[in-house]
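Feature request, filed as a ticket because there's no other form

It would be nice if the structure record came with a short human-readable summary line next to the tokens. Right now we just get the raw output. Example of a typical job, pasted below so the devs can see what we mean:
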Amino acid sequence: MRKFHVRKLLLLPGAGFLAAGLWAIPAHAVNYSPDPPAGASSSWAAVNGSVTDDFGKPIAGVTVRRKSGAGNAVTDADGNFSLSADPGETLVFSHPGFRITEAAASAGNDIRVQMLPSLQDSDSVYNILYGRQRKATTVQSVAQLGSRDLNRTFSTSLHGMMAGRLAGYNVSYTPGIPGEESFSPNLRGQSPMIMIDGAPARNMTNINPEQIESVTLLKDALATAMYGMRASNGVLLITTRKGDKASGQRISFTAGVGTSQMLKEYKPLSSYDYARLYNEALANDGQPAIYSQQDLDHYRNGTDPYGHPDVDWRKEVLNKNALMQRYDLNISGSRGNARYFVDLNYTNQAGPFKTEGFNKYNTNADMQRYLIRSNVDVQINRSISASLNLAGRIQNNNEPGGFGPNIMAGIHNTPRNAAPVTNPDGSLGGNNTYENNLYGATVRSGYANLYGRDINAELNIRADLGDITRGLWFRVGGSFYTNFTEYIVRTKQNAVYQLYVDPATGDTSYLKTGEDTDMVNVRESSTTERFFYTDAQLGWTRGFGNHHFNAMIGANYDNRILGSQLPQFFLGTNARLQYDYAGKYLFEAAIGYNGTNRYHPDRRYGAFPAFGIGWNIAKEDFLNKDWVNMLKLRATYGLTGNAFNATRTSGSGESYFVYNQYYVNGTGYSFGNSHSAVTGVREGALNNPYVSWEKARKFNVGVDVELLDSRLAFTAEYYNDLYYDLLQARGTNTALLGIGYPEENIGKQRRKGMEFTATYRGTAGKLSYYASGNLAVYHGLDEFLDETYRPYPWLYRTGNYTGQSYGYLAEGLFQSEAEIDRSAWIDGYRPQPGDIKYKDLNGDNRINAFDQTMITPGKPNINYGLNLGLGWKGFDLAVLIQGVGNRYSNVRLAEFENNGQGNAWEHHLGRWTPETAASATYPRLTVGTNFNNSRTSSYWIRNTSFVRLRNAELGYNLPETFARRFRLASARFFLNGTNLLTWSKFKDSDPENLLGNYPASRVMYAGLTIKL
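Raw output as currently delivered:
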């Protein structure tokens, strides 16, 4: 083995940026010139040419054939070919990673052909934990997505880019101001752990897609067992890009600009409708009207805009469109013994709020983000290689001094007749009921800044120990990640004024509410996290005839410091063995043994084994069919753990060192003649010295089919997972103890489901196309909850689907006093006609807690997606349709709440009245909270399932001859849209904005990608 040169390793940090400026040295080509076939036309001539990709780099292995008959060639390492053909006839160029291309043969002149990348990334090889594995030999449950698909959906989060693209993976989206949207990923009903290049639990999903090679979902026990007590919920593995050994230098620059428009949301009533419905609600409550007929006429006719305003707060405060920009530059390639990939990305996303020129500072809710990544791989000598990956993020979020979420909530909840925007003298409109002028909160209240910083550094060294025995290798690596956020608030308050006009004299005056204040400058909060991770593996990969082995053993240590908490560490070892016989009979086993200091020293570690088997029937002699490329059956079973009961990416885990007993400040005690108060000490919540990680026994069976030269692919999977020792508080605990109880490992859940993926890729002349669909059907079942005694079976939650809503079963609306007299009521309240009628489940003629049951349908969750694409000549089109089925939500948007100061919306026009009793879609109106109608019940359950045209992109690649005029290898224009159309039975608002605060957005985006 050659001597290891330390000084070479020390040059790694600068190698990425130095290598980015070097051009690759072109190699000399060797032509391949086949002889003409027997019987060839006398007009045939030698046709020479070269084939390049969209970076202008040669492509080796391209098949070149005559479209009209026999004769073909294959490009060499420099992309060159030679073929005998008739001048002018059509040649067809094909390669697995590129779209079919045709060109006319030309004798005497070399032809140059540029091939465009395939419409979809290949999934023939998976990135898995600590390595890669061919799809043909894997028995794990794995799904993978390439950067090409990720790039098509505009989102500041990786989760948003992935929605609808992989079976079993669903994303719940909560809209928010730019940079603060909330995405809740769901993998088979659980929130997966995120890993980047093998480092666990990194909170960096705001990575840009150009930096990503692939995103892999590791679903079953076998795929994740080596991470043991952090593996139960599955893993989302992000693998970043590397430089290509044979590519030379590649430069890509993308610039895009677009706008976002808010989607549908609840529509508030006009001031006229609001006032007349308010009077109706008061009458229903036995109260006199507060709006006279003259008031109603002013509202209806708009004759008094200051005394009787009708303000569309959304229009006054928000812009219709918000601008966004995104720029990305990446340079990759190789030079000598070094490979490099460098990416710089800038995103600027403007918020929806209006601004005014009189401010010297920005009051919009903007987000500016800078991302940088440098991945450098160096072959130090024949046996030793090293890689250094550096990544950083700088993100600045701005928002109005009234705070974006508060302003959006105010727009939603403030009636249109609350106050004018401004008075005739320019002062802010308002009164002692509505003291917060939304326009003032947006442009006259200062601003707030949120600063975020991330740094991630990874160093890996790999040694080829083939001198000891062929296939032996060793790897050691370490990574450090830290993030810091700081929130700076510079805000001020504004007085509001109510205009008063003397009816006798016409003189005006103003009633002031609140005070104008100077701007405050406060550092409201700051947080930091620091993660240090290191691991090592010893592996052996070897084949003996038809017997192929891949084995490894490793160890890892993960130290995590979250804010002011004491460090948490995970320490463990793991091992894996993969074996196949001729790619036909497959076996794999893995085990993890690890622990964490959050548990008692005597009970910190556990073992987590898993194994899997597979059989590729297509390899058998009895099924020797050319059109059957793969027919693989596989099954896995294993044990995993979950030491993150709460936040997965930041790893707060369950209660903080809950195995210790703590004592806290108690009530005051008086001592001495003066009765001086002294703070005492009391016992805190009970400790649980036996607390442990949650566990899961996971079973997975699947079939992978590929037919017709792998043009048609199909995967079906069934899983049945038992989650047990779940941390729960006992329902039988008694308050007589006087202190809190700890959570205990007592719960059980069963999660079962099926997943299907089907893909067809084809060509028809110059047309390339694909269709890929995915479907997941799953549900969870609460097999054990420690519930208190309940006298009726319908009161128990055990045995029901997880995530269900419980309340009263509604039987419509009361229509008359006679119906009320013969029905059961809620204790303490006599309903009126138009109130909700509830079912008396136990028949005691009373409605109380004993009549509550499951009110949402017990149906499995359904998620699906359809991904379509085609390419013709320089054009390409991609469409993604995403759907969610059996989605039921409790949607109760009540009228005149907040002591009568709340808003009312269009759906309240369908309220019950004696005249509309037969067609009413809403109970009778009341002011404030209605004791009967506000109860959780099936009346408010809505089917919020939806189908969304999540994304569509149309692109056009300029002809290569035209691009070369500008010294470009290629140039592509594209138009992109996200959240374009939505179909749903729920019509009042967008189904992903049920709370009505910050709406989801439609994004229209256009850009240009140039490559050198």
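Something like this underneath would help us a lot:
The two ends are 39 Å apart (CA to CA).
The chain has a mean pLDDT of 89.
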